[in-house]
Design brief:
alpha+beta, 2 domains, four-stranded mixed beta sheet, 13 helices, elongated
Length: 420
């Protein structure tokens, strides 16, 4: 009997193609709008998240900052700034304690000490370089790929060595085609910066990472032990900042709070300076929440057309019941049960809304994909949203088709047979 009702429903839709299509329009527009909005929204969110990941969304930066104490004087506020001294900075022991305390949570901890930027010339060749003192964790933090040689070792740091790691970009710019990445190892380079000379030995070559924001004039980093950089700068080894990235399975927000709490314990009695942590994860989460709320709000507005479409289905089903009153009477006279008549019209309503939902889904994906591509984001159609949309459209068919179907099933067979 179910198969028979399905055949009757399909034949009714075929017999009234134009009317059925016009009835579906509200469902098509509503579902299409929602799917297009969700597709574009997800594409933007995924694109932004991907860009944030490229900038290190899980990275956390830790700074020693001034507490910015305010004093009142004739209703004016003045910042009380105390010059930072070594006792206000982070020491090697503090960082070692921190690493030990969070050893099972830290993926990489990066330290940097800048020496400066210059253009280094070698006869007709030249390269823009940025000289940095770093630790072993710098490599993992920045996901550097070594092409030859070794990165900075703990022994280099302890012995204040002048071994350096350079990029393949620097090799090509400074040496031309004279050496490849392996042949350049153990070669010496002499750098003059701030009227002081720095003689370095190339111990390793890493792959220079470029992106859409990188141009040919971008500075290439030359990396050496941070202890060597501090010595060159004639400074004691104290840090005003460092960077850390937690392991993949660690809650970044909680890790950031725990980091702040741990390091702030060293500054309990410091009246001028404090620990400040900064991460992009909370910003990414806020952006995703905002995007989800925006999608929900716009989808709710687009959902009005679904309601209108549902009323259209109810209206056309009422007309269909009226037109087929005599047919209903004949079926009842031949023994059809009220439940069979009811299911016949509910199935027809489901088919109308279901077909409209499928057409709307396809149009929504097409429009959403075009919109995403126009904004230069990779399209991300949601299968889950599509499933919900089709299910919802069929639910609308059941909801708005029930009353006409119930009316049809309650018709008096004799009165129905007399209807003209």
């Amino acid at each position: 009997m179910l198969i028979e009702n399905i055949k009757i429903a399909l034949n009714s839709i075929k017999a009234n193609k134009l009317r059925s299509i016009l009835t579906m329009l509200g469902i098509i527009i509503g579902i299409g709008s929602v799917i297009a909005i969700v597709t574009i929204g997800d594409s933007i969110a995924n694109g932004v998240n991907k860009e944030m990941q490229g900038y290190g969304a899980r990275n956390i930066e830790i700074y020693v900052t001034n507490k910015n104490e305010f004093s009142t004087d004739e209703n004016m506020y003045e910042v009380s700034s105390v010059e930072m001294s070594e006792k206000d900075m982070l020491s090697k022991d503090m960082l070692l304690d921190y690493e030990n305390a969070f050893s099972n949570q830290i993926q990489a901890l990066s330290i940097e000490e800048s020496i400066g930027q210059i253009t280094l010339k070698n006869n007709r060749f030249k390269s823009n370089i940025n000289i940095l003192g770093v630790n072993k964790g710098y490599k993992d933090f920045n996901k550097l790929e070594m092409l030859s040689g070794d990165f900075i070792k703990e022994n280099d740091i302890n012995n204040i060595s002048y071994n350096a790691v350079v990029s393949d970009k620097f090799i090509k710019e400074y040496f031309g085609s004279k050496y490849n990445n392996n042949e350049v190892l153990n070669k010496n380079i002499e750098i003059e910066i701030n009227n002081k000379f720095l003689n370095l030995t190339i111990a390793g070559v890493y792959k220079f990472k470029s992106d859409e924001y990188t141009d040919k004039n971008t500075y290439s980093n030359i990396l050496l032990p941070y202890t060597t950089a501090f010595k060159f700068n004639k400074k004691q080894v104290y840090f005003q900042s460092f960077k850390v990235v937690p392991k993949e399975d660690i809650d970044v927000i909680k890790f950031q709070l725990d980091t702040n709490t741990f390091l702030s314990s060293y500054y309990t009695h410091n009246n001028s300076y404090q620990i400040t942590t900064f991460g992009l994860t909370s910003l990414v989460n806020s952006q995703n929440d905002l995007m989800n709320k925006l999608k929900l709000g716009i989808s709710a507005i687009a959902g009005i057309s679904l309601f209108v479409g549902g009323i259209g289905i109810m209206n056309i089903m009422m007309v269909s019941v009226t037109e087929r009153t005599r047919e209903i009477g004949i079926r009842m006279a031949l023994g059809a049960k009220a439940s069979t008549i009811k299911s016949q019209f509910i199935i027809e309503a489901i088919f109308i809304s279901g077909i409209g939902g499928i057409i709307g889904l396809i149009l929504g994906i097409i429009i959403g994909t075009i919109g995403s591509n126009m904004m230069k984001y990779s399209s991300s159609p949601s299968l889950f949203a599509g499933f919900i949309a089709i299910s919802f459209s069929m639910a609308i068919g059941i909801f708005f088709g029930y009353y006409p179907a119930n009316k049809a099933s309650n018709l008096d067979p004799i009165e129905a047979l007399r209807y003209e």
